[in-house]
Design goal:
Chain lengths: 506, 190
């Protein structure tokens, strides 16, 4: 209620002569700290015209997010718009050709370039003040000027008109301000000093060119500007306001001509720039990266929450135990029995990575993130049979007299000092229906040991035991359950199943 | 009878206020941010900018727990920088990651009176030149001119910041050479 009261008071302030600004969320894909935040500001819209601003923002973002590589990363971005009315509509030297009073003091032809649409210093300060108030987490500020004349400008704040082609200017300018890309334009400007950029170099040695991984071995260097290499990555002479001595990776990319493909090297740099700001990982659990485990047979559960791009492929997940990759463990969650490691300090790590083809060079590993949990384990069952024997005696010993000797309890991850619980015992059952009905044996277990073998065998006389093709068929074989069925259907005489545990040869 | 216009105006205001509260799009999906309410008073278009005023922090219970930072608004004229304003902001700011440095990147550092580094961040230097071939006009068009631009740097709030240093992290060679001090701006008065 108090918030509404404040709002009412502010509204009254506005009516007394102040300008009012309103924040709208256009596209919310997550916490601002986890997203690239685009902010659009309205310029040259009278209060009555402000409803049109939403449509103009949508047009702009729909264009940008139809382009590579932004298309894939739309879900990594939030979009906001800040509406603020101007006294008059349009902009200086716009379609109407006159000077008008607008909030950010924008204007075309400033100075002397017809399409150059800028806001003055006062307008820039106002834009920052608005963003500080509404979206201080802004990454990409863009002012949309309510005028259909074609034009725009770059800089710390991109400016664009509502002309349908103006979004192309914004896309190019974001390449500068967001991804630090150079102009691949090659007319000489002696007063401008070129420098090494992700898409500009003076280097001509193939092995030293920074985008060499994108250059096919058969592509000549320098690369001719002809149709054979029009879509190739090469080393094209002329870039960053020099006709000679500076080189660009693309013959004619977005950073040279509007409405052109972004270019492989430029796309890579945009993706690198996204991940320079955002982790590929949204969250992980448990949050505490050091875990102390003092009881045996504890199930330890871990999970990660990777970002989800708008287009495939999804991010990959890999799990490691003590630095060793766990084969087949690619899900976002991972669990293991604490006894898997035995006592001591061990690690579980999850690595999340974006496998996108947009990036070939990522020396800082920005597209990946690894979370490592350190486990301080005590009171665990021995992790090898050799240690087990040292602690609990020979394989056939059965101190609890429950019929499950030491070796079996080791293999199934059971405590040898306790009698087996009913829900831990192997049990028989059936699967299918006559005439294709089979006996099954199900063995609950806590883990899979690597130094023993698990073999379910079948027999018709309790003398001759067989396993494998033609005799048994595995149904499940996970760390928590081994389930096998007889290959022979029931009804053909007595059939028996058993589990045979053997110590692997040293 | 003379009170009728006032009552009608008040009723209209209440209706407008209620409608603003009903707009599902307005700030509907950023619960963490709770920015400063949907309506904020700002200078009218024809008044001089009040550059040194400190913005109110985002209101609301969620906003109270968000971290605060300082923003330094600079006027960048090529490699010359002057301080325009210092502002305080509050938001869901991300933890810095290893952003690539290099040509075109500025290292902005808060240092103490004994030149101790208190905080730093990398920001893109304002683009000073942009020419591009434009199919709409059929020729090359300039979309950035080397004129002064306002830029803003966000840094953590730290005690004892004596000056803001702007370094060019770049060189024309790779790997980037040592940084070059472009500006050292006293913060005593800010």
């Amino acid at each position: 209620m108090s918030g509404r009261l404040i709002s009412l008071l502010l509204w009254l302030t506005v009516l007394s002569g102040g300008a009012q600004s309103t924040l709208f969320t256009v596209q919310n894909n997550g916490p601002r700290s986890q997203r690239i935040n685009f902010v659009f500001l309205s310029e040259g819209y009278t209060a009555a015209q402000l409803p049109a601003f939403a449509g103009h923002v949508n047009t702009a973002i729909n264009y940008l997010f139809s382009r590579e590589p932004w298309q894939r990363y739309r879900s990594y971005c939030n979009v906001f718009r800040i509406e603020i009315a101007s006294t008059q509509s349009g902009t200086d030297n716009g379609i109407a050709g006159t000077a008008v009073t607008t909030y950010f003091n924008s204007g075309f032809n400033t100075p002397g370039v017809t399409q150059l649409l800028t806001i003055d210093e006062t307008g820039q300060n106002r834009a920052y003040a608005l963003m500080n108030t509404h979206v201080p987490e802004y990454d990409v500020p863009i002012v949309i000027v309510n005028d259909r004349k074609y034009g725009g400008s770059g800089g710390s704040i991109a400016i664009t008109s509502t002309n349908s082609s103006s979004a192309q200017i914004t896309e190019h300018e974001i390449g500068h301000s967001f991804a630090n890309l150079a102009d691949e334009y090659d007319n000489d400007y002696p007063e401008y000093t070129p420098s090494e950029k992700p898409n500009n170099t003076a280097e001509t040695s193939r092995s030293l060119i920074k985008w060499r991984s994108w250059i096919d071995a058969t592509t000549p260097l320098p690369t001719p500007e002809d149709d054979d290499f029009g879509s190739a990555v090469g080393l094209f002479e002329g870039s960053m306001y020099r006709t000679v001595g500076q080189y660009r990776p693309h013959d004619n990319s977005l950073m040279r001509s509007l409405n052109r493909p972004t270019g492989a090297v430029n796309s890579q740099q945009i993706v690198i720039s996204i991940y320079g700001r955002l982790s590929p990982l949204e969250s992980y659990s448990p949050a505490l990266l050091t875990q102390n485990v003092t009881q045996s047979l504890q199930t330890l559960e871990f999970s990660v929450d990777p970002k989800i791009p708008s287009l495939s492929p999804p991010l990959t997940v890999e799990w490691k135990m003590d630095g060793q990759t766990v084969s087949g463990a690619t899900a976002t969650s991972f669990s293991l029995l604490s006894d898997t490691f035995g006592n001591g300090t061990h690690t579980v790590a999850a690595r999340v990575k974006d496998p996108t083809a947009y990036v070939r060079d990522d020396p800082a590993d920005l597209l990946g993130e690894t979370i490592t949990w350190t486990l301080n384990l005590s009171g665990q069952l021995p992790e090898t049979l050799a240690k087990w024997r040292t602690v609990y005696g020979p394989d056939a010993a059965n101190p609890t007299q429950d019929g499950y000797p030491n070796l079996i309890k080791y293999a199934l991850g059971l405590n040898p000092t306790q009698s087996i619980a009913s829900n831990q015992q192997a049990y028989g059952g059936t699967v299918g229906s006559p005439p294709a009905m089979y006996q099954t044996l199900t063995v609950p277990r806590h883990l899979i040991r690597s130094d023993v073998s698990y073999l379910v065998q079948v027999s018709s006389d309790l003398t001759s035991w067989n396993s494998g093709v033609g005799h048994t068929m595995p149904l499940t074989d996970t760390s928590t359950e081994l389930k096998v069925r007889d290959a022979t259907p029931m009804g053909t005489g007595r059939r028996y199943l058993r589990l045979k545990i053997s110590a692997a040869p040293p | 009878m003379k009170t009728w216009p006032f009552l009608i105006a008040l009723l209209m205001l209440l209706i407008l206020w209620w409608q603003a509260g009903q707009d599902p799009e307005k700030n509907a999906s950023t619960p963490h941010a709770a920015p400063a309410g949907p309506l904020v008073s700002l200078p009218p278009a024809d008044s001089p900018p009040d550059l040194t005023v400190v913005s109110p922090p985002p209101a609301g219970s969620a906003g109270e727990s968000l971290p605060r930072a300082r923003v330094y608004r600079l006027l960048a004229d090529g490699e010359r920088f002057s301080l325009e304003a210092v502002d305080e902001v509050q938001g869901d700011f991300r933890q810095p990651r290893a952003q690539p440095s290099g040509s075109g990147v500025l290292s902005c550092r808060l240092v103490s009176d004994t030149s101790g580094l208190l905080a730093s961040t990398l920001v893109a230097a304002p683009v000073t030149q942009c020419n591009v071939l434009d199919p709409v006009t059929g020729g090359a068009v300039t979309y950035v001119r080397p004129t002064p631009q306002v830029m803003q740097i966000r840094l953590p709030r730290v005690e004892g910041a004596d000056r803001l240093e702007i370094h060019a992290d770049a060189s024309t060679a790779e790997p980037a050479g040592p940084s070059r001090l472009l500006a050292s701006i006293p913060l005593g008065a800010k």
